[in-house]
Structure formats: structure tokens, C-alpha cells
Amino acid sequence: MNEWGGGLWLALLLAFVVSALACRVLARHAARLRLVDLPDARKQHGAPIPLVGGLAVLAGFVVAVAVAGELALLGTVVGPALLMLAVGLVDDAQELGAGTKLMCQLVAAGWLVWASGAALHSLPLPFLSGHLVLDWLAAPLTVLMIVALLNAINMIDGLDGLAGGCLLIATAALGAAAALSARLDLALLAALLAAALAGFLLWNARWPWQARARVFLGDAGALAVGMILCWMILRLSLSWRGADVIRVPLTVALAPLAVPVIDLFVVAFWRAAEGRNPMQADRGHSHHLLLEMGLSTAGAVRLLWLAAAAIAAATFVAWRAGVQEGRLLGVLLAASLAYLVWFRLSWLRVRRQRRGDPATRVLFVSTGLGVGGAERALEQLLPRLAAQGLSVAVVSLREPQPVGARLRALGIAVHELGMAPSQPSPAGLWRLWRVVRDFRPDLIQGWMYHGNVAAHLARLATPRARVLPGIHQTLARLELESLATRAVIRLDAWFSSLAARVLYVAETARIDHEAAGYARRGVVLPNGVDAARFRPDAEARQQLRATLGIDGSVFLVALVGRFHPAKNHAGFLRAAAIVAGEAGKVHFLLAGSGISADNPELAPLLQDERLRGRLHVLGPREDVPRLFAASDLFVLSSIQEALPNVVMEAMSCGLPGVVTDVGDAARMIGDSGWCVAPGDDEALADAILLAYGEDAAAFAARGRAARGRVLAQFDADAVAARYVALYCGLLTGRVQAS
């Protein structure tokens, strides 16, 4: 391509758009094709993620190259790239053995070297001006270099956006080097591949509007895109059959991939030094180390992006300034050796901070594992703590319940003691003692009042453990609690003087409890929400509305929560009756444990004539995200809360809301909804009517603002990282146990 005109910008836009759209289209069919990445203990995600990003990138790249009329440029790479694509797809679908994958990589790399005639005939001598001639080793070493690059790219694909970003940086750097070397054909291809990778990153990286990756690159993407990148490096830097062009030094061409390459060799070296298989997957990579050091997922990814860009830019500038390739290589090797030592020392320090155990052991003791807000918060937290390297288990004082079953399915150890509410039994306490003695926790985390008291009792079985009670409500309406629960709260307050820290989900809860006699050693750690699970879902909205028998024009108002006097369901129903008398297209949805016509406190209100045919009483439900997806407005009518999970979950689904001014609810919702005084039925009804009558564009903007607030303040991964930092800090002395 000798001239770059407006057609280039069209091709770049096409590469980006096709890649981005292909991600969404292919994701819908990923499960049927078995191209999904399932969660396990090594991985951060808690739900299956489509492995179709690589296919989308290739689609965007190939379509853009075809529109630019330059498909002929891809000649020698088509076969090896298709082989890697096929191998990767099979591996993504059913997991090939490591030996089989390596053999296929060697075949594809050999094919590329044979077809192109490119070979690494000499190597620069570090810090010197000469070169080492390779003779007959040229082709074999070139093949090994390609295989190493493929595996480096594949292995760095461990955090949302990391591999895609590194590939984008490398491709952009190669394109710049090609352009300055008058290699406009390669510069064009690199630019189009970078644009396609950018379209993929729209769905793969974490952004303010996206809490986690929606698609992954997959082995198919890492290997196929990696092969194309290797081909570009060979064309740019090595002798090419029949080509008489300006060549970029190999060190300069490889520098943009320094982050994945250095990580590959450092990790493989230390695995081999410990007598382990160098290619065995684990959580020992550079990005895992950054997470252990306290960085968030997004922070670790952006730091590694910055490192990749900085290395590429520094090497590029030095090359243009006339620095000899041997010196450049020497500096990079010296930096790699320094990183090798730092990497090892850092991991040893992390292990020492964990007191020599394979993982910090945290035992959670919860009042129960039903479907309440505190229990759902625990369900969000535990898999994320396990993914960050902690060894976690949970004890429920109650009989088997739904959240316990779901946690067990995720591989979390769950122990249910079978005790009745507020009725400790000798058999249950003996089982608790046995669990603690077997698990040997470093920390015992209480969860709700009864769980907190049991956590303190459990410490008798392992005195070295530290106890952290967890508080999930305020004391604004203590009279609503039973006499037994009030006694447990007083006992928990007395025990709190023995706690390392007392954890609260809201600042208002901390203030209330410390005023009531709890030790002044509180830490506020909000609950988190899985924004990938709780999200707007047009398909679920349509399906559930069809099930309920309502069309898209109906304004559906939802209240989700277990029956308890503090939730004030009666007040919501009275407000709903007022609204129903004034607005004809409004329906109401109630879901939660204890919500039914058999409830004697709700039955008279459910029979209100104004609500006939417009009230949907669903009882306990496991599909809360679908309920919110089908709704237009959520309501919190409580007269006592701390940091209500249901508010975060509804906001994460893009719903504006009406909340009562309890706990931190007003701070949470901000200007994305309306806040009224607790217990004021008429004010609640007026706010619902205001929402119903608001301009459609303004109402939609509130929904977007609601989800944005959740992503910014209550992301489940960020909350889990704060727990890990607190736990490790207590065990290492960085956080003092008061």
C-alpha cells in the first residue's frame, strides 16, 4: 500500500467495529460450542465466560485487510495461523494435553519458517558490537523463538484485559517501527490488527462501565493472533525470502513483548528450581504477585500495560538514537536478571507474611446461609477470596440452606451445624469445635450476631486465631428484634473487646454499635456486588414479563427482600395501593422468603381492591437478577438497614430506585433515585409516582448513573481485595490488632 488516504481510516474503523460486534454475537453461541471458560480455584471469575475474543479479533482483522485490498500480504502466515486457531479451538473446547499443544506449535512454527525462508542467522552479543553466527542452528532456534513467544502470550492471559492490552501495545509498536522503516505494508497490517484488538478490549478489559470481562481471548485467540504477531516480527527484523528491505533490529522488534516474555522465563526458571514442571499452570505469575501485594485487578493490569509500553518506547528511542543492538540487548537482559531476583524475593516475602502456610486460613462462622442480603454478600465474597489465594471455609449454625449448596458447588468447604435459631445445642457446638480443630484457621470471621458469638466461642479450640465479628445492620430500631436476638447482641458487644477488629458494612452501623457498647475498633468494609451477574438483561426482561403476563408498556415496581418487620412490607403495600389508584399502567412485584398470601400480617393488604390484577407475589426466588431485569423501578421501604445489598444489586441492574433514609441507603443511591423518610407511606407513594411520570430520557439517565455508582464504589473484586489486605495486614503486623 503505497498511499495512505481516507480508505485507511475506514479500514481501521471497520476492524474495530467488526471485532467489537463479533464479540457480542459469538458470545451468544459460546455455550453451545463449548467455548466457555469455567471458574475454578485458580481463576478470578465466578461465572462461565465465553472464549470467543480471538475469533472476533481475527474476524475484524481479516475483514479490514480484505476491504483494504491487501489479503495477498498475508500469504505465508495463513496456514500456520489457521493451524494455531484450530488447535486453540479444540483446546478451549476440551483441553488438549500439554505435549500435544507443544507439538502442534512446533509444527506451525516450522511451517512459518519454511514457507518464509526467514531465520535467525546471528544473535547480537550483549553489550558488544559483534554478532554470534548460528549457521545450521538458525532455523531450529527461530522455531523455538516462535514457540516461546506463543507460550508467553498465552500464559500472560491471566487477568481481564492483560493479554489483549499487551498484544495491542506490541502491535502498535511494531506498526510504528515499520512505518519509520518505510515498511508501509507491515505498518498497515499492524494498524488493522491493533484496531481489531481494541474492539476486543472493549469487552475484555475492566472499564468504568464494565466491572469485569464479558469475553476472553481464549487459547485460539492467543495462539492465532500470536502467530500473526510472530510473522510480523520475522518480516520486520529477519532476512525474508526474495525481499530487499530495511530491517529493524530483532531486539527492538521483540522489546514490545518483553513483559510476557520475561514473565514466561522467570516463572519457568523458578518452577524448575523448585523441582516442578516449568509449564504447569499455577497462580505464580507476575500479575498474581501484584495482586498479592495489594493491587486491584485493574491496577495490576494497567501497571503491566505501562511497563510494556515503557519498555517498547525506551528501546525504540534508543534504537533511533543510534544505540547498538548489543547494548540494547544487554540492558534488557540485565533488567530481566534483576527482575528474576526481585520476583523470587517478593514471593518469599509474601509466603512469610502468610506465616509459612500455603495460604492464610480464614474460617467464616455465619448465623445461616439462607437467601438474605448478608448471606448473598458472603456468597459473593468467599469465591473471590479463594481466587486471591486464601484458604476459606464457612460454618453455618443452621440447617442446610440454598447459599450453602451453591458455595459447596463452587468448591468452598461448607459445614452446617443444624442448630435451631437462638438455640445452641451441645452436639452443634461439638461439631463446631471439631471443624475448628481440623481447619486450624489463622482468622475466624463472624457473620451476623449469632455467628459472631459462635466465632468467639470457636476461638477456644484454637487460641492463636484472631476473631473479627461482622455486623450487617444498624440498631436504629432495636425493639423490632426478638428478646433472644437482643440478648445475643449484648453478648456480642461484650465479646467485641476480645476482637482483633469489628467489621461493619456501613458507617451508620459502626456509629450505632459503638454507641451501644461495642469496642471502638471498627473497620467499615462495604458489601460488594457482582456487576457481571447483576446487569441489564433485555432477554431476561422479555421472558419474565411474558411469564408474569405483562407487556413492555407496564411500569413494574419491585421490592425484593425476606419478610421482617424492619423491611416494612406493609408500608410498601399501602403505598402501592395509593399509586395504583392514581396510575393505571403500574404493576408491583414482591419476592422474598415469607412473602405470600398465607402471611397473616400481609394477607389483608394483599387483598386491597386497588391492587387486584396488578400485584405479583412470587415468594422466595433464586433468580433475583432476572427480577430486576424485568422491572423498571426498585423500592426499599425499610425502617432499619445498614448497607442493604438489594439496593446495590438493583442499581447494578441499571434500575433507578426509591429508598427510605435508613443506614447508608441515601448515600448509596445519590442522585440516581429518590429518598424519603422511613415509615411515611404517602411520601413513598409520591416518590413512586414521580418516578413513573419522569421524562423517559431523564429516567434512563438515572438508571445508567445507578449502575455507574455501583461499578465505582461496590465492585465485588475490589471489596474482596480490601478484605485480603486487612487479613494479611493483621497477620503480618501491618495492621495492628487493637
From TrEMBL:
It comes from the Bacteria. Mg(2+) binds at residues 154, 219. It is found in: Cell membrane. Its cofactor is Mg(2+). One of its GO terms (cellular component) is plasma membrane. It is a multi-pass membrane protein. GO terms for biological process: cell wall macromolecule biosynthetic process; cell wall organization; lipopolysaccharide biosynthetic process. Keywords: Cell membrane, Magnesium, Membrane, Metal-binding, Transferase, Transmembrane, Transmembrane helix. The keyword Lyase does not apply. Residues 371-533 form the Glycosyltransferase subfamily 4-like N-terminal domain. The chain crosses the membrane at residues 6-27, 47-65, 71-90, 102-120, 132-150, 162-180, 186-203, 215-234, 246-270, 303-322, 328-345. It holds the Pfam family Glyco_trans_1_4. PANTHER family: PHOSPHO-N-ACETYLMURAMOYL-PENTAPEPTIDE-TRANSFERASE, UNDECAPRENYL-PHOSPHATE ALPHA-N-ACETYLGLUCOSAMINYL 1-PHOSPHATE TRANSFERASE. This is Glycosyltransferase subfamily 4-like N-terminal domain-containing protein. It comes from Candidatus Dactylopiibacterium carminicum. The lineage of its organism: Bacteria, Pseudomonadati, Pseudomonadota, Betaproteobacteria, Rhodocyclales.
